[in-house]
Design a protein that fits this description.
Elements: E1 3-8, E2 17-22, E3 25-32, E4 35-40, E5 54-56, E6 59-61, E7 68-70, E8 76-78, H1 84-91, H2 97-103, E9 110-116, E10 119-123
């Protein structure tokens, strides 16, 4: 288990996002209404840095294709709404679940966070 210091909590006010690296993995860290959460910093579609995206409530929005992921759990809230996936959803019959699971991830990796002595810490356990 690796745990790293990200920044002082005072440097990550509510509604802000930053990036860190935990054991070789880039992580998106956000302050959601006073609670700190972390998910992988890579969108599973084309690997855009989620930390460059916008925080909307508890969701981080991919800066390239507007996919949304819940910062608290890593679950996918919207998948490619401004891309081909939205067109498929509007025009084609529903996909078989096994195919949809391969093409649309249900979640991204979430990381454990804690604040110790005013410092944000993220671990990969």
């Amino acid at each position: 288990m690796a745990e790293v210091e990200v920044c002082p909590l005072a440097e990550l006010p509510p509604g802000s996002v930053t990036a860190a690296e935990v054991d070789g993995t880039r992580v998106c860290v956000a302050n959601v209404h006073g609670e700190v959460y972390a998910v992988q910093d890579s969108c599973p579609h084309l690997f855009a840095n989620l930390s460059a995206g916008e925080l909307k409530g508890a969701s981080i929005v991919c800066p390239w294709h507007d996919s949304e992921f819940d910062m608290r759990t890593g679950s996918t809230k919207r998948w490619l709404p401004s891309g081909m996936w939205d067109l498929i959803n509007r025009t084609a019959p529903p996909m078989p679940p096994f195919l949809e699971a391969k093409l649309k991830p249900s979640r991204i990796r979430a990381f454990r966070t804690r604040v110790v002595d005013g410092v944000v810490r993220v671990s990969d356990d």
